[in-house]
Structure formats: C-alpha cells, structure tokens
Amino acid sequence: MRIAIVTGASSGIGEGFCHALDSEGLDSIWMVARRADRMEALSDSLQTPCRIIESDLSESSGVDRLRQLIESDRPEISFVVNSAGFGRFGDSWEIPSDLTRDMISLNCSALVDVTCMCIPFMPAGSSIIEICSASAYLPLRSLNVYSATKAFVRSFCNGLRRELDGKGIRVLEVSPGWVSTDFIPGSGGDVVPPGVFRHTVTREEVVTQAMRDLQKGRKRSLCGWYDRVQVWMCSHFPSLATIIWERSLGS
Question: Which domain holds residue 125?
Fold first, then answer.
C-alpha cells in the first residue's frame, strides 16, 4: 500500500498538498490534524481514499498514536509532508509559556518525530517535504520564537539530506513568505501593523511551486519573486534585511 502522510492537513498548506497528491496514484492519503470535521470535508473532495487521523502533534500522545498506526500497518510511504505548525507575534517573554512550548513542540519536535518514524518505511524515490519559512533566514523581533523554530527546520533539512545520501529519498525545504491562510489571524496578526503582511501568496502557489521544485530535484522551494529576494537579502545582507523588517513593524 503506497501512501502519503500529511500533517496539518485540515487547512492551509497541508490541505493544498492533499489536493496536489490526489493525482499521484496513491492507495491512500493519511491526513493528520486536530480538526476531524475539516479533514472529512477535504476527504470528500478527493479521489484518493483518505485515512483521517485526529491527533494533536504538539502532545507526545498524538505523536505516539501516529507512530503506532505506522508500525502496525507498515505501509510504503511515498510522501511525507510536515505542514503542522503555528506562530505567535510578540516579544518572547510576553508570549504565554504554554504557547511557546507548544510552538517549539509542534514546529520542531513533532516534525522530527514524524520524519524519523516514516523513514524506515520509505523506499528510494520517495520524498520528504518540510514546511519551513523565509523567517528561517533571519532572527525577527516580535516573531523570535517562531523564526527560531524555522531556523531549526532549515538546519534539520540540510543535515537530513546528508544522512539520507545514497538512499534515494529526496528532502525538500519549502520556505515561503507570508501565505494567505489561517496562520496570519492565528498568529495574532490582527494586532500587527498591516505593512508586515503587504506581500502574500496563496497556498496553491506555494504547493504548485513546491511540487515543481520537487520534480526538478531542488533542495529548497521559494514562491514568487519577493520570497526569492527576501531570502537572498537575509542570506547576504542580514543587517539591511533587519532594518526592512523593523520598518514594517513601524519601528
């Protein structure tokens, strides 16, 4: 049984990847998220049979449940898409500690856990898609914890490619800028200066570009000219990129 596992499948980029993987000839798409009703509605719109796994991956029990299902069914995993994650605006010490722990747990620990539990069941030619962020390339005031978690994901992708060298398993880092999804209002974006979200792309654009880059064997997927310029500037002129970010905050 050839399957894909998509975390964060109930909305946003994860939902977009479920639509994209619907044409890959899979036997099943395993959707993992907290909102079963959203996944059920998504499943009804797809041709590929879906398995709905209601699970909170920020909790160890949620991660363990997915692990038990994989080890019990022992499927052939062709795609892993780690899309589950969230961010929160605010100075690091002002964000409630439980939210900070959940952010680190979901964005970092769960991503690593899901990736590592799947690799033993992934043959040559399979793909790991990790949803990172343009924020991984620069420490960001007022979004510090989130950008740090994404810097972790970026580093993990780079090391994982070396670990998987010779196994024929591709690792794609997807690092968009702002995407028009539930992430923005969920991050506390309603109290953030509107200039921060001036340049956005759609989830469909992110997913289409990612699938194209995956087929071309690229290591990283950036969506749109602004995202490319942003990552380039953060990599080569971090001081200037910091000034631009500070100005977008109204500083």
Answer: 2-248
